[in-house]
Every structure is written in structure tokens, then in C-alpha cells.
Amino acid sequence: MTTFADRPPLEEQIAQWRVFLRRRRAIHGPDVEELEGHLRDQMAALTEAGLAGDEAFLVAVKRMGSLDALSREFAREHSDRLWKQLVIAPGAAGEPLEDTRTETVVVLCLAVAAALAIKAPALFGVQFGGSGDAFYARNASLFVLPLLTVYFAWKRGLDVMCCLWLALSFAAAALFANVFPFETGSDTGALTALHLPIALWLVVGVAYLGGRWFAGHGRMDFVRFSGELFIYYVLIALGGGVLTAFTMMMFGSIGMNAEWLGSRWLIPCGAMGAVIVGSWLVEAKQSVIENMAPVLTRLFTPLFTVVLLAFLATMAWTGSPIDVEREVLIAFDLLLVVVVGLVLYAASARDPQAPPDFFDRLQLLLVVSALVVDVVALAAIATRISEFGLTPNRVAALGENLILLVNLAWSAWLYAQFLQVRRPFAALESWQTAYLPIYSLWAMLVVIVFPPLFAFA
Amino acid sequence: MDFGKDLVAASATPLVLAILTEGDSYGYAIIKRVAELSDGHVQWTDGMLYPVLHRLERQGLVAAKWRASDSGRRRKYYRITKEGRAELTVQRQQWQVVDNTLRGIWMKARTA
Asked: What's the mean pLDDT when you consider all of chain A?
């Protein structure tokens, strides 16, 4: 064996062979080690028989068989390996055993803490149902997002100064959610409940990026993380729903009404804990499974485009104007949110170096048709805005519409430039990631300025 | 000698199990032993042995363990289990039946 140690080029060749082997999904690390051991034994025997080192290497590799055939045989025996498994087993990601265990403990503690936090106000007499609901709605994000931030602060090893700023942001959020004398059932209170999570998500993002919001490509990673977390959260919520239904059914069958258990404990505590557990799963699996959000984007971009074009065509054909009702503005806001999401997640999964393809044209078509639909809707609303008067909901919805419109208009311009090969795709990507804080800043504005502006109505 | 794929696949299990009854061994040594016993007539593509070994391991016919070898590298050693020996007995009987049948036909062909 010593014959090979003093021949670095040969070691390089073996290393390269090992890399090729590793790329095969059906062949795992220990198998590679086993096969490499075989290769080296074979080479040693061949060298002893008089072959030179590189000749021995060539013969040994040839005898091993072609990589394709080998990987096919392994795949036949280990077909399960073609399904990538999310195993949070020790050392799955090449991390030491200790770290993985510590992380599991930290995550479980934080999840339990989040589940208990939502029950803490009950100790002071603020109950679910009835008068307490408005309080819970406004503070929902404050029960769990600080703990999620703690998780990332711990994981990324944030310095004290940064932690202090993050803590200050949460303290300020708690202040603005609770000091204003909101009227019962007030619109501004409901707006705070809706916008506070959006504002605070930026704080989570800063912690996620280890305090370096402006450095490098990290922001797109945070976008990817958010999308995957959303998908995981929906899946966990589905499972939680099944669990709750079974609990009610089983206890109901022995004559006990378990509704209080479901609605006061399982659902709220589960909803909080799931945010932490979901984030942890996304962190653990990011290298294991293909991301889901871009796949859904690919699936729905053509469908949304078709629907929008069909809508425009029908409106032009029949000439019927948009019936401006209360919810219409919100509905078109949501449409723009979906389209921005499609653009964002398409960008997150795209290789910035690749030349324009059919899907990019489709994206541009989607963005342009969404813009046209929204402008038509806005025009319809503008003609009657004087009749409406300005309510907090309407100002918030109009503001959001404007923010999304600006984003999409510039995205459409960048897409067009990219399709004409005048600008790289990276321009669109950096526009989208640079725009992210705007959403949170607007949400902050709604939380801080709107209640006093509209007299807490 | 070039064996057909099916024959190689069919004979691999009894060959590996039989060699392991001689004592624990690892992939490279098993292949060397096969070549030795067949005077070099049975030549497998080396890599193909490992999926076979992993299948036997999954079926519980052999057990595997990583051990340090004299060269300092880790090596995966295979040991035949009780179930493996039972399987080998069955396969041995089957192969003997095939062998006897073929022998009978070929003897007749020679005397005819």
C-alpha cells in the first residue's frame, strides 16, 4: 500500500473516482468506502504483479465495472434510496453527534415554551373566546416569533449587540400591540393583528441571516426558508387537525366532551409549537429534499396566467365593468400577493446564469396580465373612491396595492430587459430581495401610525 | 469464460455463502477466492458483488461488521448466519439436482 502514498497524482485520481461514485444517489457513503477499499486492494495486488501505479488504477477501475451499471445494481437492491429520506439522525448532515442532540433538545424546549406562552395570559384571566380574542389576535405573533428568533440567534451564534436590537424590536412590537386604547371590534385593531406578523417577520429574517441582512445572497435563502416553512406548516396543521378530530371523537365515544381540550389546548398550543418545529425541519432538510415552493410555482404559473388572460378577454368581450364591492380591493390585493409570490419563488429556484427560456416569457405574460387586471380594478375603485370615504381598511388595502404594483411593474420591465438579453437575471433577483423590507416597513407603518390616525376606530 | 448474466446472478448466492463458511471475509477476498476456486474461469465484474452482499445482508443470510484492517483502512467483513447456512443447504440440494440431471443427459449423449 505504501507504493501509492508517495504518488499524489494517483491519490488524486482515486479521489476523483470517489467523487464520481458519491454523485450516484443509490450509492451511499459507507458503500463508497467499501468500494474504495476494494479498489485499493485490487491495485495493490496488480502492482505486486508488476504493473505501474496508474496502470493498476486503470485495470482496477475497469474491473469494477461501469458506474452506470454499478449504480443500477445498487438502485435495484436499495430502491428506497432513490426516495430521499428526511432523517434527522445523528450525523445525517455530517455534523457531530453532540451538536445534533443539543439542537434537538433546544428546539423541543423552545417549542414547549411557545406552546406554554400562548397559555400564559390565561393565568391572568384573559381567556380564549369572548373579550380576550382581540388581545390574542393582536399578540399571536409575539408568543412564538421571539422564540423562533432565539432559535436562530442560538444557531447562528449572534453577538450580544445584535440580540439586544432584536429584543428591542420585539419589546417595541409588544408595546404598540397593547398600549393603544382600541375600541371593541375596531378595524385598526384588526389591522394590527394582520400586519404585526409581517413586520416582525423581518426581525426573524435578520436573525436567520445571522444579523447580516445586507450581505450576499442570504436574503434569497430567507425567502426560500419562508416558502418551505409555509408548506411544512400547512402539512403539520393538517396532521394536527386529524389528531384533534380523533381526540374529540374518541373521548366523545365514552361520553366526555373534549372540546375544551381541542379548542383551548391542542389547537393554540400546536399552532405555536408547529412554527418552531417546522422551522427546525426546514433547517434540517434543506440539503435533503428538493424545495417544494418552486415546484408549486412551476405548476401554478401557467394556470394563473390562463385564468388572468381568460378574465381579461371575457371582460373585454362582454364589456361588463368590475362590480366594486367591499371585498374587491382586498381580493385584488391577494391576487397581486400571489403573483409576486410566483415571481419571487420562480426567481429563487432559477439558475441566474441560464439564458431566457419559455418559462421566463410565461412569467412576463403573467406579470403583465396581473398588472392590467389590477389597473382596471384600481380605475374602477378610483371613480367611486369619493363615495367611500377613507376608512383604515381601505387606506391599508390601497397602500398595499400600490406597493405590490410598483414591485410588479418594475419586475415586468426587468423581465422584458432580461428576455432581450440586455440585463442579467440577477438584476431581477436583487430587485426582489431588495424590495423585501418594504413590505415589513409598510406593515410597521400600519401598526404604529394607523391606530392614532384613525382614532382607534 | 463468459457466463450469461442470469447464470452469474443465480450462482452468486451459493458461491458467496459457501466461501463464507470457510470463515469471515470481505469483498475483495471473496472475489479472489472465487477466481482461485474456479481456476480463473468465473470472473465477476468486481462492483457487482457488493449489491449481492447487501441483499444477503438484508435477507439476514449474512451479517456485516466494519473492522480495522492491517493497512489501517476500515473494512466491511461479512459473516454467514445460521439462516445463511440453512439457505446454503437448500441451494446445495437444488444445484445437485440440476447437476445430476445434466450429468445424466450428457452421459446418455456420450454413450449414444
From this structure: 85
Q: How many CB atoms lie within 10 A of CB A183?
A: 13
pLDDT of residue A115: 92
Determine which of A93-107, A223-237, B57-71 has the lowest per-residue pLDDT on average: A93-107
Q: Rounded to an integer, what distance in angstroms lies between the CA atom of residue B62 and that of residue B58? A: 8
> Cell numbers at residue A394, please?
381601505
Contact A374, A336 (CB under 8 A): yes
Q: Report the residue of chain A nearest B64, measured CA to CA.
A: A34
For A88-106, the pLDDT digits (tens) are 544 444 455 677 788 889 9
Sole residue written with cell 475497469: A62
Residue A421 scores a pLDDT above 50:
yes
For A114, the enclosing helix (H) or strand (E) is helix A97-117
- pLDDT of B87-98, one tens digit each? 999 999 999 999
- CA nearest neighbour of A36 among A5, A54, A61, A68: A61
Q: Work out the minimum CA distance from B74 to partner chain A, whole angstroms.
A: 8
Q: How is chain A split into domains, by residue range?
A: 2-82, 97-285, 292-453
Smallest Cβ distance to B46: which of A30, A42, A76? Answer: A42
Enter the ipTM: 0.85
Residue carrying the nine cell digits 416597513: A441
Residue A320 CA, chain-centre distance (Å), reads 39
Q: What is the mean pLDDT of residues A215-226?
A: 83
Higher pLDDT, A216 or A223: A223
Residue for grid cell 368581450: A317
Side chain identity at residue B94, one-letter code = Q
More confident residue, B5 or B53: B53
Q: How far apart are CA B89 and CA A349, in angstroms?
A: 56
Q: Count Cα atoms within 13 angstroms, Cβ side, for A191.
A: 32
Cβ contacts of A293 within 8 Å, gap of 6 or more: A224, A227, A228, A230, A231, A345, A348, A349
Q: How far apart are CA A28 and CA A75, in angstroms?
A: 11
**Contacting residues of B for A47, CB less than 8 Å apart:** none
Residues A147-191: tens digit of each pLDDT? 999 999 999 888 899 999 999 999 999 999 988 888 887 888 889
Query: Any CB–CB contact under 8 A between A357 and chain B?
Result: no
Residue A37 has its nearest CB partner, among B47, B55, B75, at: B75
Chain-centroid distance, C-alpha A260: 32
- Predicted TM-score (pTM) of the model is 0.72
Q: Which domains does chain B have, with CATH numbers?
A: 5-111 (1.10.10.10)
Closest CA to A34 of B82, B81, B57, B12: B57
Cα distance between residue A258 and residue A225, in whole Å: 36
Alpha carbon distance A123, A119 (integer Å): 7
End-to-end CA distance of chain B: 28
Closest chain A residue by Cα to residue B28: A38
